[in-house]
Write a structure and sequence with these properties.
This protein is mainly α. Helix 2 runs antiparallel to helix 4 and helix 2 crosses helix 8.
């Protein structure tokens, strides 16, 4: 019995070890796909600021013209930063807050139905951007990112000097 448990644990450990190699390509995919989608959304809003301003006015948001420009710019430039993996955790936090505010202001009914009708919550426009932002915020951008590149070349920690014991 002990041999069976040892073998099972060994297989499990090997499986998890190899599965770990998928983390960084997955994070790259999430950042690129949803970052580019967010850029396109922001670009579309920047080129239709009148419609976005009218929509924000209908929601009763303060300073709808300024808010439309700010949110459109955040989505465009934030999507770029997310896709590149630059300032990833900071921009993903800002985008997470932005998507939560989108739920609160524009998709209240979907937000209220998070537990009673999860399909309605997940079908709302901000959902996938919220999920992608949360993934990058929690797990970081991965090794295939500008953040990792900068960290590797510019912000190396000083080498640790081994002291004799």
């Amino acid at each position: 019995m002990n041999r069976l448990l040892t073998t099972t644990k060994s297989w499990h450990d090997k499986f998890c070890h190899y599965a770990d190699y998928l983390q960084h390509p997955f994070l790259l995919f999430v950042r690129l796909y949803w970052g580019i989608q967010l850029m396109q959304s922001g670009w579309g809003k920047l080129h239709n600021l009148d419609k976005v301003t009218d929509f924000f006015t209908s929601l009763g948001l303060p300073a709808p013209g300024f808010t439309a420009t700010a949110i459109s710019s955040l989505e465009f430039f934030g999507g770029f930063l997310l896709a590149a993996g630059l300032f990833s955790r900071l921009i993903s936090l800002v985008l997470t807050i932005n998507m939560l505010m989108a739920y609160i202001t524009a998709d209240k009914e979907a937000l209220r139905s998070i537990f009673s009708d999860p399909d309605k919550f997940t079908a709302a426009a901000p959902y996938v951007f919220l999920l992608a932002s949360l993934i990058v915020f929690v797990f970081g951008p991965g090794v295939f990112s500008v953040d990792a590149l900068l960290s590797r070349f510019f912000w190396k920690s000083s080498p640790k000097i081994k002291t004799p014991v």
